[in-house]
Design a protein that fits this description.
The chain has 93 residues and is an all-alpha fold. The protein has one domain. 84% of the residues lie in helices and 0% in strands. The protein contains 3 helices and no strands. α1 runs antiparallel to α2 and α2 packs antiparallel against α3. It is globular, with a radius of gyration of 16 Å.
Length: 93
Amino acid sequence: MVLFGEYFTIGEIIALITMIFAFIIIYRICWKRKAFRKIVLAYLFFLFSTVFAILREYFLWDVFRTLEHVSLLVSSSIFLYIAYAAHKNLVGD
């Protein structure tokens, strides 16, 4: 079984298309409510990091590695803030 090459590329394309459709669904559900816009932004930066990872794999440019890490850092920071705000609201402090 071939893990790299054409089959791997097809799998990456299918995964990226699935992530884009998921982003559209999340956007349509969450953007109307201001409280959930951070979820859309966090997922958008996660999607950017995935695109940069795929581009880094094919172009071998180190700038894509840096952009991927920055996007993951921003995405995880937003997700951590969402978790903190949810915990704060549930506890009531």
